[in-house]
Structures are given as structure tokens and as C-alpha cells.
Predict the structure.
Amino acid sequence: LSAGYVASNNELRASATPAVDVVIGNVTVPAGQIGRIDATVGLGSGPYVGFGWGNLPASGFGFSLEVGIVQMGVPSVDFSVTDPNGVIALADINAEIANIQADLNEFEQYPVVSLGLSYGF
């Protein structure tokens, strides 16, 4: 049995220049009307608990396996659109952020599986 804390400053970043029409908030925007879309999802830190088995022999190969879960909290989202033609309202951008955040709200806990191989000599 193991417990600990995962300190994470990880984030996922995405950037795209649409080649087709996109829906932002509740509005469909033609691809040629907007520039780049950027999104960043920040992952938090939190406690970890796991259960595992392993051995480290004096000589030869050893094996370990651990499964657990990290409670990292709900990821945060940042979303921006380069809008040189001014066709997207701030309310639509905020609605898109709310839509993305609603999708991420269920990812508060993350499973962990660790498999190890060791050799003692």
C-alpha cells in the first residue's frame, strides 16, 4: 500500500487554424473569417493512493506492479481565438469555454498503473 502527493504543473496545449467552418459557443463561423484557435488545459496536483506488489531479488530479475488513483481536481481551461474580422462575440467565446469546462469536469481523478522490471547483481 502506498500513498503520496503528485505535484503537477502539466498542461495540454492545442493550436489550430480552421480549414472548415467551426462552432464557437453557439455560432458557426466560416473558416476564412477567423485566424488561429488556441486552447490550454491545466492539470492540478493532489493526493495519490495505490496498492501494489513487487520484489527486488539479491540477484536476477524482479517484477513490480502498482495500481492507484490520483485526486488532482478539475482541470482548468483557457481558450482564445484570433479574430481579425471581429465576427465572434465575447459571449460566444465564454460559452465555448463553459462547454469545454463542462466536458472536463468529470476528469477529477486519474488512474495510475505502474509496471516495473528490476535486476539485482
Residues 63 and 117 are 5 Å apart (CA to CA). The longest strand covers residues 60-71. The chain is about 10% helix and 50% strand. The chain has a mean pLDDT of 89.
